[in-house]
């Protein structure tokens, strides 16, 4: 059931990046979950990128999918050492080989002297997310699924005997991700998330776009993004209903992957869920009532840290 049209909202309007890696750092993942579980989590994110690519081939989805890689840059000189440590961590603990680029090396990548180094991940991909969404919907319908558009669900009332414990896997959503990155696809246009326009406020901005020639922004889209407070996805079962949410900007590949994983869970294989056992953290903010009133203050705080560190 879809409250609007399939692929509406952030699902079909994000920056189309299909990137490898979890949202928290490798060190944070090991600290919170231990090395074995952190490795399993990282491997799930890696397999998710592969799965999205495999589906475009298997279902013949023409969505301009390419393994273009991902560049994580050092904004200040002291950031380069943390990037170097992250590279060692990724290789030693997660089996992920990346390339460390110096400031001079960056002239060959983005063609700029603005940053002080970068970490190049060659495995991340880029695709046209609108085409991908529609292709998945068509493939799902061909496989027998029913997609009901403009059917907003306000509540779920279980029948007297409860929801069936093993509902057909085809009723589980295959893709409902949210993203927050931006990048031009090969047609030369991108629908830019509204937050990305903050960088273009004027000469006083600390944004890297002031150092590059940036194409004009023609269309801007703003909306809600699915971030959990611990910055990892959450998936499981509650009173017979199965859920998966909070992809933290990795929705293209992780919603695809978790759709398959949760179908396996519904079929009696709980170990297929890489997020099993992750409880929802409490919001560490007093007087929180469901509205994130504190975000402007948090944004100002981290902006100040960026200027000082």
Topology of this protein?
Blueprint: E1 17-18, H1 26-33, H2 35-58, E2 70-73, H3 77-94, E3 99-101, E4 118-121, E5 125-126, H4 129-142, E6 192-193, E7 220-221, E8 234-238, E9 241-245, H5 251-266, H6 295-308
Parallel strand pairs: 6-7
Antiparallel strand pairs: 1-5, 2-4, 3-4, 8-9
Helix pairs in contact: 1-2, 2-5
Summarize the structure.
With 309 residues, the chain is of the alpha+beta class. The protein has helices at 26-33, 35-58, 77-94, 129-142, 251-266, 295-308, and strands spanning 17-18, 70-73, 99-101, 118-121, 125-126, 192-193, 220-221, 234-238, 241-245.
Explain the overall architecture:
This protein has helices at about 25-35, 35-60, 75-95, 130-140, 250-265, 295-309; strands at about 15-20, 70-75, 100, 120, 125, 190-195, 220, 235-240, 240-245. It is of the alpha+beta class. It has two domains: about 1-70 and about 125-150 and about 170-200 and about 215-280, FAD/NAD(P)-binding domain; about 70-120, no CATH class. The strands form four sheets. It has a three-stranded antiparallel β-sheet with strand order 2-4-3, with helices on one face. A two-stranded antiparallel sheet has the order 1-5. A hairpin with a 2-residue loop joins strand 8 (about 235-240) and strand 9. Helix 1 packs across helix 2 and helix 2 (about 35-60) packs across helix 5 (about 250-265). The longest helix has 24 residues, at about 35-60. About 30% of the residues are buried. The model is unreliable at about 165-205 (pLDDT under 50).
């Amino acid at each position: 059931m879809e409250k609007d049209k399939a692929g509406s909202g952030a699902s079909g309007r994000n920056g189309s990046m299909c990137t490898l890696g979890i949202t928290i750092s490798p060190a944070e993942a090991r600290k919170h979950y231990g090395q074995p579980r952190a490795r399993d989590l990282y491997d799930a994110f890696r397999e998710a990128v592969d799965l999205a690519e495999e589906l475009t081939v298997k279902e013949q989805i023409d969505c301009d999918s390419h393994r273009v890689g991902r560049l994580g840059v050092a904004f200040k000189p002291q950031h380069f050492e943390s990037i170097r440590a992250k590279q060692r961590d990724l290789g030693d603990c997660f089996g992920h080989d990346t390339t460390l680029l110096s400031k001079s090396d960056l002239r060959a990548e983005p063609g700029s002297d603005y940053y002080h180094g970068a970490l190049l991940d060659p495995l991340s991909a880029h695709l046209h997310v609108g085409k991908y969404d529609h292709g998945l919907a068509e493939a799902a319908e061909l496989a027998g699924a029913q997609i009901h558009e403009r059917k907003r669900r306000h509540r779920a009332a279980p029948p007297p005997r409860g929801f069936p414990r093993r509902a057909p896997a085809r009723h589980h959503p295959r893709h409902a991700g949210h993203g927050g990155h931006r990048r031009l696809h090969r047609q030369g246009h991108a629908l830019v998330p509204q937050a990305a326009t903050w960088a273009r406020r004027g000469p006083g901005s600390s944004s890297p776009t002031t150092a590059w020639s940036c194409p004009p922004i023609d269309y801007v889209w703003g909306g809600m993004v699915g971030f959990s407070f611990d910055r990892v996805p959450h998936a499981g079962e509650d009173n017979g209903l199965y859920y998966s949410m909070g992809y933290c900007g990795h929705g293209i590949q992780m919603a695809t992957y978790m759709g398959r994983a949760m179908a396996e869970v519904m079929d009696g294989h709980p170990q297929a869920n890489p997020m099993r056992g992750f409880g929802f953290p409490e919001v560490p903010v007093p007087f929180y009532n469901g509205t994130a009133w504190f975000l402007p203050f948090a944004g100002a705080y981290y902006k100040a840290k960026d200027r000082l560190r």
